[in-house]
Amino acid sequence: MHRLLEHELLALGHPQPAHAANQLLLLIDGTLAAGATRPETHPASAARQIAEQILATGHQHDSAT
Asked: What percentage of the chain reaches a pLDDT higher than 90?
């Protein structure tokens, strides 16, 4: 899963694809755990917002150069 995420992030031009893949994988694991133990907290919605921030980090670096 990490390799797949890293590959996609690299294709998107993310400046730190391996690090971002680690973050997304941790986010996925946490979302699954929270969904199993506290589904009423809607972890997928929160996870989407965090994932968007991780992806936006790549775009911020692109526009800064």
From this structure: 85
